[in-house]
Amino acid sequence: MTRPTGIDPMPLSGDQFSQREIVIQFEQAAVRRGDRLIWSHLNLSVSAGEFIAVLGPNGAGKSTLLKVLLGLLPLNEGRLSLLGKPARRGNIAISYLPQRRTFAADMPVRGRDLVHLGIDGNQWGLPLPGLRKLWGGDVRARENRRRVQQVIELVGATAYADRPIGELSGGEQQRLLIAQALVTRPRILLLDEPLDSLDLRNQQGVSALIRQISQDYQVTVLLVAHDVNPILPYLDRVLYLARGQTAIGTPEAVITSETLSYLYDTPIDVLRTRDGRIIVAGHPEEVTYHAHHH
Amino acid sequence: MFISLTVSSSVLLDIPPFSLNLIQNVQNMLSVDFMQSAFLAGTVLAIVAGLVGYFVVLRHLVFAVEALSHVTFTGALLAAVVGQQPIVGLFGVTALVALAMGLLGNRSARSRDVEVGTVLAWVLGLGVLFLSMYTTTSSGAKGSLGVNILFGSILGLQPQQVQWITIVGTLAIAAILAIARPLLFASVDSDVAAVRGIPVRGLNILFLVLVAISVAAAVPAVGVLLNSALIVTPAAIAQRLVSRPFMALLLSAVIALLFTWVGLTIGFYAPVPISFLMSAIAFLSYVLVATFSRKN
Questions:
Q1: For B58, nearest residue in chain A (alpha carbons)
Q2: Is the per-residue pLDDT at A2 higher than 50?
Q3: Per-residue confidence (pLDDT) for residue B161, from 0 to 100
Q4: pTM of the prediction?
Q5: Do A164 and B243 meet the contact criterion of CB atoms below 8 Å apart?
Q6: Do the chains contact at B193 and A124, CB–CB below 8 Å?
Q7: Cα A210–chain centre separation
Q8: How far is CA B229 from CA A155, A221, B151, B226, in A?
Q9: Cα–Cα distances in angstroms (integers) from residue B46 to residues A128, B71, B252, in the given order
Q10: Better pLDDT: A219 or A4
């Protein structure tokens, strides 16, 4: 018997995470912007290696959640602990993929350079190959190059890593950006709608890659998504944000007519197709749009 | 002035004409004081322009550079009207405008272009006002200041100007090399760079001030109007030829250096203005590279 090479599509059960290290912990957390409450009463414990989708309508505070984790926005209430410490900017244990932004077609930088900037892009001074031998910098440079090559292989970008990034397709760029995020060997990976501009095949490919990374390297992944379907087979849990409220649990438990109707405060139908896809009927986007005005 | 459009410097100075002995040619040329100054200043300026230019092209700031070099015109004339050294006004006003541009920053490309264009016209208008104030209050002999600022005179540099250019230029080179990596990160991917703890906004402002300094330093030598030949063209060529960022950065400086040295040498032996030569070499090289490089 050979071990299957594919990724196990079954979400891990809650028990398997209970013994693991808690990486992210929110306690009674709330964020306001001006007078507006973005969300409150967020209680969430995330373990190492968990893959969580952050869902909800526009303006529900999904990106805000990532900004809080990155230390770019403070909590107005409650507590957040990341690997046992408060959130702060420039935390090397966290990598972040902003909402995309494709690169200009004439961007004269190779994918490999982009990944390399993930390692040393925040260091001052220019790497001078001749001089750095003097203090052993060439050893580190070789190690860095090896790490860059490693993550490029991991995301399957070897074939096009040496072409200018602007010439690559959206899916290829996204894989290289994931490689850049991984090159620092983060414990937490925050992805803001990474599947947005991709076609269906690339959506599945990138989702499977993210699941594989989170399992093999015990990286905790929070992925903001508009559509849960491409990632549904790979997810452990979903965090649903709507109208300032939050719901957390397995997709089966959270994405139900009952929970969503409660969150949106209006009747919503969740339908499951025979192939396992989820269809949310009741136009949640429009519902929230009106909800703001009443 | 000893520069004439009809006779070359080498003829006027009684230097042997250009021969096949290239080393002898260079020795002859460098035995002349003003050529030494021109080569020293030109070398420093070319390296600064090449390095700064790489990031200018990468960040789509070509128009902003054009605007800043026009600002130098107004700055130099303002200083002349007030009775200061033109070089003080040159650096002061240009750096201030760059600072303002940096603080305004972070707009969309279109609104940035509109703002730069609006400010540019106003600043140039001020320059015209200062020019008229200056020429009506001073003797006719100083009337050539405006032309000198516009087109530069690399063969007519004063020792004090050479000193300024060398010191300021060397500092600018050191600064650019020091911030090169974070600046590249911020130029390519500012969101991720900011999250990684790079002070993106501060770097943007610092970079614009460095652009201002390099533009202002180049004005006495290559003038307001031809600045972009050294800043924009070598960088654009380097980026077409090489896609490794730091290779392209250094190549850009090397190309700028070549333009300057070749321009100075031809200009010394042939009766043609050096500013023209440098801009013509830059133009022709770009056309050649654009035609034959792999890009579609």
A1: A107
A2: no
A3: 84
A4: 0.83
A5: yes
A6: no
A7: 9
A8: 42, 48, 12, 6
A9: 20, 20, 9
A10: A219
Beta-sheet pairing, A220-224 with A237-242? unpaired
Separation CA A210–CA A222 (nearest Å): 10
**What residues of chain B lie within 8 A of the CB of A97, using their CB?**
192
- For residue A130, the chain B residues in CB contact (below 8 A) are none
| Domain architecture of chain A: domains with CATH | 20-93+187-251 (3.40.50.300), 103-185 (no CATH)
Query: In chain A, what is the straight-line distance between the N-terminal and C-terminal CA atoms, in Å?
Result: 61
Query: Are the beta carbons of A122 and B198 separated by less than 8 Å?
Result: yes
- The string of pLDDT tens digits covering residues A122-136 is 888 776 666 666 666
Residues in chain A: 294
- Is B195 in Cβ contact with A90 (below 8 Å)? yes
Residue owning tokens 């020429």: B135
Please give the domain boundaries of chain B with CATH numbers for all domains.
Answer: 9-291 (1.10.3470.10)
Interface contact B58, partner A, CB < 8 A = yes
Instruction: Report pLDDT digits (tens) over B135-194.
Output: 776 555 555 666 777 777 788 788 888 888 899 999 999 999 999 999 999 999 888 898
Which of A119, A98, A103, A70 is CA-nearest to residue A191? A98
**Residue B180, SS3 per DSSP:** helix
| pLDDT at B187 (0 to 100) | 93
| B189–A contact, CB cutoff 8 A | yes
- In single-letter form, the type of residue at position A220 comes to T
A110 at interface of B, judged by CB pairs closer than 8 A: yes
pLDDT tens column, B12-22: 677 777 777 77
pLDDT at B93 over 90: no
